[in-house]
Design goal:
By secondary structure, the protein is an alpha+beta fold. The longest helix is centred in the C-terminal third of the chain and has 20 residues, at 417-436. It has four domains: 1-136, Beta Polymerase, domain 2; 143-220, Hydrophobic Seed Protein (Orthogonal Bundle), CATH 1.10.110.30; 228-442, no CATH class; 450-496, no CATH class.
């Protein structure tokens, strides 16, 4: 059951200042949508959504000026503005002020997507209770996802994807009639801008259980429309140790990848894979966390892009699947093809060039750590570590982490302890090199530069000089060369040979 709202603790300090100012100005308006929903679910109301009968942009600017905040016109044509407030801890709180979508508050609420988002509070009388014209309170109490009106998906088909995200985020069950309505409107997703689909999928996959989101999209019929490459993985069988088809394997790898990315939260039996992952990654906690939090662009972090890589890493398998005379199944070249297909898919969804590059490289290199494990009996030496990171650049860390998820996704309950332990040791060695010995093993500073080599050996700029520098860097990384004298001896011999 939903409890009462304690407004003194539900709003941030700056949000409370904003509300106090709005009340002092006798503004006619209502807190709506996600703000009210989160309050009822006892979740912090990080941002405020305010609906007003007129002057949305003007009011947002006045509020920003009064509180010394920044102002942005979100949608001038629809009279929507945003005040960006700074909290004492440096975080930001958004106050979005929008014109009512209809002639009245009730009309506005009926035009919203789902009943749990069609709730309102009078800004001048917050204690008067929630305004509910669609049955959202009852639906929220029963954890039911229901459309606010029969026109919800016709007005905006993207709401189908949003429904998937919100069902997962708030542990909701779809109302049967709403689910049927979503299935009947999935073709409308073809008309939705790629950027909007990208952002909604990203929220579902990265911030929720991505594997469950894909299954819900498939159940509704939306997967074949927004991600046909993933739908095509269904029924593509594989050889052992795989026990799942490519579709289910990809979702299992996605699940494990999201588990790995939560390493600091994992706590289980000491013998469980989750606990072993936490033990493996704990020594790199701060450095690895900072690395994965790096923002590429469009708000995408390396961690978020790694989730996309997990979903897309095997999309080249259907086209490369072959069965020989003995019945053996192979997918030769699927890694490179997966990288190319991931590039096309992400470009279609309007991801940035850098985000596309990182995901595609991770797909292409997703088996590099596994291949290295198959070549060595123990742990890799310094030369092998260097070659791993040089070959996987710039996603060596991602490729190392990926090998854990891929291994778990392939073996499942039939995990062989010795092989799993060896894989963990390998990943530990690679991460130690990257985060603790980077300047020695991953990217050592050259003892000689190209100008010196050209001057000494009488060479012109060109591929030969680049090749000599590359060879020298590897020898330094391998620990073979440690002085300038040794570097000169090596370069002179290599130039002649």
């Amino acid at each position: 059951m939903l409890g009462t709202i304690d407004f003194s603790v539900s709003f941030s300090p700056v949000a409370q200042q904003a509300i106090a100012w709005l009340q002092a100005q006798h503004v006619e308006g209502w807190l709506v949508g996600g703000t009210v929903r989160d309050l009822l679910l006892h979740r912090p109301a990080h941002d405020l959504d305010l609906a007003v009968p007129s002057g949305g942009l003007r009011l947002a600017r006045r509020l920003a000026d009064a509180l010394g905040a920044a102002f942005f016109p979100l949608d001038a044509a629809r009279d929507v503005g945003r005040a960006v407030l700074t909290e004492p801890d440096g975080s930001q709180t958004f106050v979005d002020v929008a014109l009512l979508r209809g002639p009245s508050l009730a009309a506005d609420l009926h035009l919203r997507d789902f009943t749990l988002n069609a709730l309102a509070l009078d800004i001048q009388n917050l204690d008067a209770g929630v305004i509910d014209v669609t049955g959202g309170l009852d639906d929220l109490s029963h954890r039911l996802l229901r459309v606010a009106s029969g026109l919800s998906f016709r007005n905006d088909p993207l709401r189908i994807l949003r429904g998937v995200r919100q069902a997962l985020a708030f542990d909701l069950t779809w109302d049967a009639a709403s689910l049927a309505l979503a299935r009947s409107h999935v073709n409308g997703l073809d008309l939705v801008a790629a950027e909007r689909i990208r952002d909604e999928l990203n929220r579902s996959f990265v911030y929720s259980r991505g594997d469950l989101a894909v299954r819900q999209l498939d159940d509704i019929g939306a997967l074949a429309i927004v991600l046909p490459e993933i739908k095509a993985l269904q029924g593509v069988t594989q050889a052992g140790p795989h026990r799942l088809d490519v579709f289910d394997h990809s979702l299992e790898v996605l699940r494990w990848m999201q588990t790995i990315l939560r390493w600091s939260e994992l706590a289980d039996s000491p013998l469980s894979p989750e606990a072993q992952i936490a033990e493996l990654l704990f020594p790199f906690d701060r450095a690895l966390g900072a690395y994965l939090a790096q923002t590429v662009d469009q708000g995408h972090s390396r961690a978020g892009l790694l989730v996309w890589s997990a979903l897309l890493h095997d999309i080249g398998k259907p086209a490369t699947r072959q069965v020989d005379a003995a019945g053996a199944v192979t997918f030769d070249g699927h890694e490179a093809l997966s990288g190319r297909l991931a590039t096309s898919l992400l470009q279609r969804l309007a991801f940035s060039a850098e985000a596309v590059r990182l995901v595609a490289r991770t797909c292409t290199e997703h088996r590099r750590a596994g291949a290295l494990a198959g070549l060595i009996a123990g742990q890799p030496d310094r030369r092998q570590v260097y070659r791993f990171f040089a070959g996987a650049h710039p996603v060596g860390v991602e490729a190392a982490l990926f090998s854990l998820a891929d291994h778990l996704g392939a073996w499942g309950l039939e995990l062989i302890p010795e092989r799993w332990q060896a894989r963990r040791r390998l990943v530990g060695t690679l991460l130690t090199a990257f985060f603790e010995q980077h300047a020695e093993q991953v990217q050592p500073t050259l003892l000689l530069d190209g100008r010196e080599i050209m001057a000494e050996l009488g060479l012109s700029p060109g591929p030969q000089v680049g090749a000599l520098l590359a060879q020298l860097r590897e020898e330094q990384a391998a620990g073979v060369i440690n002085t300038a004298a040794a570097a000169w001896e090596f370069v002179r011999a290599a130039a002649v040979g």
